[in-house]
Each structure stands twice: as structure tokens, then as C-alpha cells.
Amino acid sequence: MKHLLSITDLGVDGIEDLLRLTDSFVEVSERAIPKVPALRGKTVVSLFYEDSTRTRLSFETAAKRLSADTMNFSVGTSSVKKGESLRDTVLTIEAMGVDCIVVRHASAGVPWQVAAWVDASVINAGDGWHEHPTQALLDCYTIRRHRGGLDGGRVAIVGDIKHSRVARSDVLAFTALGADVTLVAPPTLLPPSLEGWPVTVSHDLDAVLPKCDVVYVLRMQRERQTEALLPSLREYTARFGLTPRRADLLDADAIVMHPGPMNRGVEISAEVADLPRSVIVDQVRNGVAVRMAILYWLLGSGVDLVAVP
Ligand code: NCD
User: Fold this and answer.
1) Which residues contact 108 (CB under 8 A, 6 or more apart)?
2) What angle do CA 240, 173, 179 make, to 5 degrees?
3) How far is the CA of 261 from the centre of ligand 1 (A)?
């Protein structure tokens, strides 16, 4: 495989193989000097047209731990401000000789477009409301580490599903690995049609929480909401926020996840975010190893994915 654009590119076997490969990069990350020469001489560039803290730094750390060179592109300080088109920007970057372009863009489909223009490998780091496959892989990995696996697991994804690329990729990945997924949101924060989504829908968080192993809370993505979808944020928090009272409804060993950035006090209370059952910091830690596995897989020298280095 040359690119990672969608979770559907991987299939169940591909997801399983990548998660297995991640184990060896977790081991590398735990060493005193967490660095291997696997991608020496390769160049990875991040092309981010949208804000990011975690994903951008995570890819950069992953590339550096594999000894690749990294380049960073920020729209705010680039010639995009002078009117340069996406295609010209991409061709300019490619002319410098890069092996991998990690793309984030506010429009769905941009990573596919970039992949059609260049010879380099392309990784989708989030395209509009559409997909965020590396987030889904790190989420699967985190659930596996804490719960042993996803098969038969009950996962509730709560909040602004409509605008969430994380939810779309997570639903694909979690259900591919055998989890039962319930989406919990007010009707206005669900996609207009859920036809073909292998999920159950609920509007009652209190009823779902006692019956789940994983509660995955989404950020309220106000920057993507162009119309008034909620009476008020307070109302939302009252009905769908993960408060301490609601967290008490969970099974003793159920875990709480969030892709970050969190809005403490809106979708999740500050206390719940800091409970031992919240594995949000682990998600970030695992994200580096998962991205090392992805970069190694796409750019390593034609290795069989199952044969761990
Ligand atoms: C998410 C994103 O940008 O899609 N964050 C992330 O990558 N961890 C989710 C969000 O912005 O709410």
C-alpha cells in the first residue's frame, strides 16, 4: 500500500497488522534513546491547512524517532497567503524531493487529490468532516491495550457526530474489529442520514452509560457549526456532558476517551477528564507509536507488514 487515506483502505487484516506492528514501536518509544534508523534519508512533510497540536507534533515525533527528516508547512506563514493554489503548493513541495506528505485540510477529499498529483506517499491527517484514519488506529490500539480487544466490546460515541471525522473513521475501524457502536447525540448533531452506518443510535446518555465498556466523548466543534444546532451549550452539557454523576453510571472497568482538544466543562467535566479511567493521555502516547508504524509501513523498504522489524 502506498497511501493511507481512509480506514477502508486497510481492511480488517491491515488494521490488525498495523496494530501488531505498533507494539514494536511502543517498545522503541520506551527505550532510553527512542530512535531507530529505519527511515534514514527519507523526508516527511506536514502540510496542515487547519490548526493542530497533537496530530502535527505526533507525526513529527514519529518521523524523528525513525530518523527521517521532517519539514513543516504552516498555511499562516506560507505563500498560500499570497494566493498560491493547493496544487502549486503541493508540486513545489514535491519538487524539493519528499517521500511522504501528511495532509490536513478543511475540505473532504483533499488527500485523494494530493495523492493524484504526486509520487510521494500521502497520509490523511484529517479531511473536513470526512475521515481521520490515524486517529482511529490509535484509538483501536488504546482500546486494545486497556480492554484486550474490540471484538464484542460496547462502545458509545457521544456528542457532535455530525461534524466529526474522528467519529466516521472510528465507526469504520471499531465495527471492522467487531465492536458494537452506539452513537449518542441530539438529533441535530447527527448526520442527516445514517444509512449504511453499522451503528445503533440513542438520545439518552444515562441509559447507554451503564451498558458500555468504552465511552468516547467528542469535542463540540463549534467552528464547523454554521447554524444554531443547540438551544445553548449549557443545555447540551446538562443532557450530554460527561459529568461525575454520569461517570458513576459506568462499569468499574469502563474507560473514557477523547481525541482532544478537550473543552473541559462542555462535553466532559474537568474531574472526569482526570479520573484514572480516562485514558486520554494514553491515546496521545500511543499515537506516536501508531504513526511510527504507519510511516515505517509506507516508507520502509518493502517489508512484509506482518514481519515486525
Ligand atoms: C480532532 C480533529 O482535528 O479531527 N483532533 C485530533 O486530531 N486529535 C478532533 C477535534 O478537533 O475535535
Assistant:
1) 127, 128, 129, 130, 131
2) 70
3) 7
